[in-house]
Amino acid sequence: MALTIILLAYLLLLFISLFLLLSNLIPSRKPAPKLPPGPRKLPIIGNLHRLGKLPHRSLHELSRKHGPLMFLKLGSVPTVVASSADAAREFLKTHDLDSCSRPALTSSSRLSYGCSDVGFSPYGPQWRELRKICIVEFFSTKRVMMFQSIREEEVERMINNIAAKPDVNLSATMLSVSNDITCRSALGRRYYDHDGGAAGEATGVHEILVETQAMLGGFFFADYIPALGWLDVLTGMRARLQKNFSDLDSFYETVIQEHMSPTTATATATATATATATGKLQHRGEDTMDALLRIQKDANHITKENVKAILMNIFLGGSDTSSTVVEWAMTELMRNPRVMKKAQEEVRGLVRTKGKVEESELPRFRYLKCVVKEAMRLHAPVPLLVHRETMQAFKVNGFDIPAGTRVMVNAWAIGRDEGSWEKPEEFNPERFMGSSVDVRGHDFELIPFGAGRRICPGMHIGLVLVELALANLLYAFDWGLPEGREEIDMEEAVGVTTHRKSALRLIATKWSLV
Ligand code: HEM
């Protein structure tokens, strides 16, 4: 009996030893992923404290130490940052399909009716369908041509306003012009009062959009440490977001009602082209809003929320970005009189006594195009592009990029990368003369519009507006600083789009050939 017990105990021990041995040989857990290098993380917040006020600059500094492919933990969110052309190519081309979704952030989700739009929608059938609709109804060459007269009229109006009041807040003026053009193209008329504010300051829907920008660039705990999301209520951010959402929603409702009301319907049907002095009704056939409502009526699954969310994309994309490029281009031209003179000579030499620059002339301005590229290289308007999220795990340069990782491509840092650019801090448009490097998403050292599946669909509209506005500003006026000012500061404001911190105030002197 005792022998049997000893034998059983021995067999049990043998079994346990074998089990332990085998479980050691066959690891039950996957090996830890080999993540790209990055700074040391703190408990709970990870690397959140390293983002600073201007994340594109802080991340650029960090990438100097940790390399162009860097891994951070922002709160509990795994994040990879690409800061060179090669690293960007990996995410926007080689692994574009694996990394072309968008994270659902607090503000973008709310303002896009739960990601019912194009810009913040996750990758999938809904995004594909809405993007296609937008490309046909707003971004196609046909539509861009249709809106040409609106752009030319609004830029001419801007030039006349400046001639009347030569002490100009160019930042506000440009924002108003691009907002007016977007409103007239997409909604059929202007929607705010230009002259209500001082010195070109905007009022009405424009103010709402400024707040929208602040919300999209604002910090929400819920986006990084979900367990602390309740702090967003205490900081007042939730209430601000809700107020902004309600303001935008009432604006969309007004526009929709106007487009559905019989008077507007008649105006649209008869395709009137009445440009009134007040700019209150300026329909030119079907505008984008009419088209979206038509599609919504025909396709049951396109909701009113989809329509409103797409409008938000068009407004944000259309107003803020192009004006930022002109703002920084003029800033750099003021700091570089040689370049200013050369650009003015080109425009004035080709346009001569015509009195204004029209869109048909833009292809002839080779140097001006270089100025625009150089301004976008040094001042990428959306410095971290729009954040992406990986859908699959994949490898980059031997490092693991897990699924669900947030991807930030630092276009601002790439534009200043010594590996891609000679003397990157210098504003030197000549670097593009005779170079094939372009902004259209093929040359990863210059990607102000992003690249790959999510590339900006409004690139063509944006570029035309920037070139038209800049060419007219350079043609019509000589520019100086206000009295007592010797130089222009270069500080950037906080936000998704990087504007100047202080408005660009300049004095315009009318130029004429005779
Ligand atoms: C100079 C002008 C502009 C610049 C620099 C710019 C920049 C960008 C960037 C960087 C992205 C993100 C690309 C990515 O994720 O890879 C983007 C996306 C987008 N932009 Fe623009 N943009 C401009 C003009 C416009 C205009 C005029 C519109 C519309 C009227 C517009 C509408 C959009 C939309 C809807 C998206 C989202 C695309 C998607 O996620 O599929 N943009 N833009």
TrEMBL record:
<dbReference type="GO" id="GO:0005506">
    <property type="term" value="F:iron ion binding"/>
</dbReference>
<dbReference type="GO" id="GO:0016705">
    <property type="term" value="F:oxidoreductase activity, acting on paired donors, with incorporation or reduction of molecular oxygen"/>
</dbReference>
<dbReference type="GO" id="GO:0004497">
    <property type="term" value="F:monooxygenase activity"/>
</dbReference>
<keyword id="KW-0349">Heme</keyword>
<dbReference type="InterPro" id="IPR002401">
    <property type="entry name" value="Cyt_P450_E_grp-I"/>
</dbReference>
<keyword id="KW-0408">Iron</keyword>
<feature type="binding site" description="axial binding residue">
    <location>
        <position position="456"/>
    </location>
    <ligand>
        <name>heme</name>
    </ligand>
</feature>
<dbReference type="Pfam" id="PF00067">
    <property type="entry name" value="p450"/>
</dbReference>
<dbReference type="InterPro" id="IPR001128">
    <property type="entry name" value="Cyt_P450"/>
</dbReference>
<dbReference type="InterPro" id="IPR036396">
    <property type="entry name" value="Cyt_P450_sf"/>
</dbReference>
<dbReference type="InterPro" id="IPR017972">
    <property type="entry name" value="Cyt_P450_CS"/>
</dbReference>
<keyword id="KW-0479">Metal-binding</keyword>
<protein>
    <submittedName>
        <fullName>Cytochrome P450 71A9-like</fullName>
    </submittedName>
</protein>
<keyword id="KW-0560">Oxidoreductase</keyword>
<dbReference type="GO" id="GO:0020037">
    <property type="term" value="F:heme binding"/>
</dbReference>
<comment type="similarity">
    <text>Belongs to the cytochrome P450 family.</text>
</comment>
<keyword id="KW-0503">Monooxygenase</keyword>
